[in-house]
Every structure is written in C-alpha cells, then in structure tokens.
Design goal:
alpha+beta; six-stranded mixed β-sheet; Alpha-Beta Plaits; Aminopeptidase; 12 helices
C-alpha cells in the first residue's frame, strides 16, 4: 500500500510486525535499541525495558532547552473471539479504508504506536530543526504504568516533556486522572451436579466496548455488568445452576463480551428460553442508542458439567457484579463535561478455586479514588471475598503557568488558523508519575485522531497523523 512508503507510516508498519502486548515488550524494546545504535545515538535500556534515546539539537539549537519526547511501546491486545490471531508472535495486519488505517479484527496499536513512529522519524531525520531531545518510550503502560514507575529521573535532563499519547487532534491535554486497579477474589464452593437437565452457554455479544477512561462517558454497555443482571433474573425465576462466569480481556477496556455456563432443569427449559428472549428485548431497548447490536444467546451445549457453584457462591458472584462500583461515579463541577471519577469492571475470570473481578478505577481527585476503593472493599467484605489494589498511579494536576502549553497554543493558532481546546481528560497518562518524580517538568500531551482505542475497531486517521506531525515540528522549531 502506497501510504506505508511514507516515513511515519513506514515506521508504523515496521513496529506493527513486532509483538508488543503489555508485559511482552522485549522485542520492541530491543528494536528501539538497535535503531538507536544504527543511527549512532546515545541509548539506554533499563531492566523494565524502558528505552531512552538522546539526540543533540540541530545547528542553531545546540543550547536550546532539552525536550523529552515521551510515549509508550506497549499496546492493548484485543480481538474478536472468532479471529485467529496470536499477539505473542503474529504481526498486526494493517488495512486502509479511505482516510483510516485499521487492523484485521484486532486492536491496531495506534495507541501508542504513533508516538514511536513520530519519534523514530524525528531521530532518523537530518533535515528537521529541533532542540536537544530525549526520546523516552516506556513499557507496560496499559496495564499498570510499570515502565513509568521504574524510570530513573537521573537518566533524563530535560525540563520540558511532550507526551504523545492523546487521541484527538485539536485538543491539548494539560491534566489527567490518576488510577488504580482493584482485584476482588471470591472463593468458590462447588456442588456436585444433580438432576435431569441440559447445559447452556449464555453469551453476550454485539457491544462496542471502548477505552474505560476516555469513553466511559458514552454510556456503552459493560458485558460483565449485563451478565450479572441476566443471571440475577434467571436465578430468581428459573431453577438453574451456574458453572462459570467469564468476561472481558483487558481491565482498562469496557468489556464487549461475556459468557456463562449454566445447568437448566429439564422442566424449566421453556421458561428459561422465554426469559432469555425477554432479557434480549430489554437490553436492546435500553442500549438502542449506544449498543444497538447487543445480543444475548443461549446455546445448548454438549459439554458435560460435573460441578456447579453452590447456591451461596452463585448468589455472591451475582451480587459482586451488582455491588462493585461501575461506570461514572462523579462529574466535575469545575470543568464542564469532565468525568471526575469512575470505575470499570473490566475482567471477570472463573478459576478452580475462585472468581476474580478486576476493575480499573480512575479519578482526578485523590480522595474520590479512595472513596471508590472503600466502596469496593466494603462490597468484598460483605461477600466474604479477598480484596487488593495494585498499580496505583497519581493524577496530573493543571499548572496555571506553562510555557510549553503557551507554545503549543500559539503554534496551533498559526498552523490551523484557530484556537485549540485546552482540556483535562479522565483517562490516565504517565504524566502524573513523571510530575511526581520530576516536579520541575513543564508538560503537555497531544496526538492525532484515533478512534475506538482498546477495541478491534480501533482506527487512525491518515490525514490527522500528517497534520499533527507537521504541527508538532512547527512547535519544536520554536523551542530555541
């Protein structure tokens, strides 16, 4: 395809061939190191697989302030269940549709592969005017920001940080939410399956999903929550037993699919199927605007189940999905339209001894993050479940005085002929961690248009990537 012969997109195609799921970044990290060495640039790779590449300023910019260009090398790896793709070894298959680049029924990795592509072109070029730069590409951002946590500030000298991990052209980000991942572990008491009946696989499909930070405000259905509602109605009105509940693949993505295995007594079959049809109609009505293709299916299974949850375990599992905080918790009273705090039950997993419920909690106010944690912990305690919070990261607060923000604003007006939006977002960025480590940093975040990140429908605008790149270069040229 012609577009992948152009510099930025050529690099994007190259990195799309390299596995880079969160926690599996060695290959992409090593690629960046090899690239730097080939270009005879100073490079450092730490134990967390973070990579720092340094390049002197071009002629006339030798004494300009050093700028940290920052993004992350990992990507959320999600696919449609029917798609045969191994993220551990298979390249992302790119396709172009008009102005958009998609992947083939998997996530694209524009978040945050575009930062790598921009950085590589900046490092490779001999004809771009720029100040001294330190390219910082972090590992494992999407799961727990472990890479950013591991960064040693002694390895960086820049006082300005430009984060390229935003997904809307025309918006300059100046603040973001902090977050934490919660994990509730509910012990399972198993019962031996008795009686005459049939096994059914219940599935929820057709949801759009999305980024649990930037798209939590769209009101899209969460398959785990919907499965909890479905099972609550079924267990209240039909004699069924539950053998498993599973849903979602990534804690920071609104889950699109969920599955449950149930045993239905023979005499209850017609009532069970009728109720499934009724629940289908209810969800289609409720989600007609956000997820019109939602569907509940109940398919008879030939798999023989030998054990099912005890009635008490089934009740506690369903109550967990009803009680663990999910969705928007508070809206900002200071910034119109900004989600202030939220929680997303991203993954539910049935194991041999327990059911795990994992949630991504976000808040731009530290005390509200604690409140959500307290509510989640209270639900776990009431249900006799274990509870822990991991991967805690801080918020990035707005700085009234920012020279780099002023440069980005001025540059935007000159390049586009209009004013940019200066915004705070509900998604989490690594900027909060860097500000905590290096309080002197002056930071902004920007990026091209990327749609439906963290879903197999993720796509990126070609024209926006080009415009944003030229805008970025115009700003760098002013840092002298």
């Amino acid at each position: 395809m012609e577009i992948f012969k152009e510099p930025i997109f050529r690099y994007f195609e190259q990195i799309s061939k390299i596995p880079r799921e969160s926690g599996n970044e060695k290959a992409i990290s090593d690629y960046l190191v090899s690239f730097a060495k080939e270009k005879k640039l100073e490079v450092l790779q730490d134990e967390a697989m973070n990579v720092i590449i340094k390049k002197p300023g071009t002629k006339g910019y030798e004494n300009a302030p050093t700028v940290i260009i920052q993004g992350h090398m990992d990507m959320v790896c999600d696919k449609n269940k029917s798609t045969d793709h191994d993220f551990g070894k298979d390249p992302i298959k790119l396709k172009v549709d008009g102005d958009m680049i998609y992947a083939d029924n998997t996530t694209l990795g524009g978040d945050d592969g575009i930062a790598i592509a921009y950085a590589l072109e900046l490092l490779a070029s001999d004809d771009i005017y720029h100040p001294p730069i330190e390219v910082l590409m972090t590992a494992n951002e999407e799961v727990g920001m472990d890479g950013a946590i591991a960064v040693d500030p002694k390895n960086l000298t820049g006082n300005i940080l430009i984060n390229i991990d935003s997904e809307e052209e025309g918006r300059i980000l100046v603040s973001c939410a902090g977050g934490i991942t919660t994990k509730q572990t509910l012990p399972i008491v198993w019962d031996t399956l008795k009686g005459d009946g049939r096994h059914y696989d219940i599935s929820i499909r057709g949801l759009k999903g999305g980024h649990s930070g930037s798209e939590i405000n769209l009101g899209r259905g969460n398959s785990n929550i919907l499965m909890g509602r479905v099972l609550k109605r079924l267990i209240d009105e039909v004699d069924i037993s539950i053998a498993s509940i599973n849903g979602g693949q990534k804690v920071n993505a609104i889950p699109r699919e969920a599955d449950a295995q149930v045993f239905v007594k023979k005499a209850e079959k017609e009532k069970f199927l009728k109720l499934i049809d009724e629940l289908n109609a209810i969800l289609k009505l409720e989600l007609r605007a956000s997820d019109p293709d939602v569907m509940i299916c109940a398919k008879e299974s030939d798999e023989k189940l030998n054990k099912v949850f005890s009635k008490e375990t089934a009740r506690k599992a369903i109550y967990s999905l009803l009680l663990i905080p999910n969705g928007i918790q508070t809206m900002s009273m200071e910034i119109e339209g900004l989600v202030e705090s939220s929680s997303n039950i991203g993954i539910v997993t049935t194991l041999d001894e327990s059911i795990i419920f994992e949630s991504a909690v976000r808040s731009s106010v530290k005390s509200l993050k604690k409140l959500i944690l307290d509510k989640s912990k209270a639900a776990a305690n009431l249900l006799g479940a274990g509870f822990e919070g991991v991967a805690d990261y801080p918020e990035w607060q707005y700085e009234p005085d920012s020279k780099i923000r002023e440069l980005f604003e001025k540059g935007y007006k000159e390049f586009y002929g209009e004013e940019p939006e200066i915004v705070a977002i509900h998604a989490g960025l690594e900027c909060g961690l860097f500000k905590e480590k290096m309080p002197h940093l002056d930071m902004v975040s920007f990026g091209p248009n990327i749609y439906d990140a963290h879903t197999p429908n993720e796509h990126m605008s070609i024209s926006s990537v080009k415009r944003t790149w030229e805008y970025f270069l115009s700003v760098l040229k002013k840092i002298k």
